[in-house]
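Technical note accompanying the year-one report. For the benefit of new consortium partners, we illustrate the data format agreed upon in the data management plan: each record pairs a sequence with a structure-token string. No post-processing was applied to the example shown here.
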Amino acid sequence: MLTWLAVALLAGAAVVAIGWGLRRADELGRPRRFPWVTVALLLAMGAGAAVPGVLRASQERRLGGAASVLAGARVAVRCQSFGGAFVDAGPELGYVRWRADGSPEPWTLIKRDQCRHLAAYARSDKRRPTRDQVVAVHVLTHEAMHLSGRLDEAVAECAAVQRDAQTARLLGAGPADAAELAGAYWRNVYPLMPEGYRSGECRAGGAMDERLPDAPWLAPLPP
């Protein structure tokens, strides 16, 4: 919505300027002054309306780059717009669409609040992420696991908890802070997930243990 408004306002400024250029004199032949105030106002309003879209596009590129590394393929991340959030009643924090052949579309949509928390995390020093930020980082990892072809929720979830530290590093965290974020999700959020997202085999030595160095069960407990 804001993007279209920005385009309309900028186009309006161009129309006013072009109109002046085509008719620089009035009916009596007197020179017309350039409508600086109108053009400047339309340009300022258009630029203001464009800012959210520009920022969202920049964030989507960064998140898409991280998701591509995690998924092992070039994929995209779309952050839900204000208009999309306004009409959305779904409980999921993000999703991937699946084709009829069982393969994923090469993009994921992450809900507006989670994208906001991801943006806040990316701007932070990464040392004390909030619970919302921890969950948002994990949502990005989880959806990237779906993009890699893991359809089952419990499988994607367990693969994600073993890569949350990698996601945090891709977003700018240092190794220790990344490991702490992954551990926080594993200790405080994973046990509370719905049954379909959890498995007794998601543990050290379990069938879902990929023996990755970032697995949260390898990290020492915080003091």
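Partners are asked to follow this layout when depositing records. Residues 56-218 form one domain.
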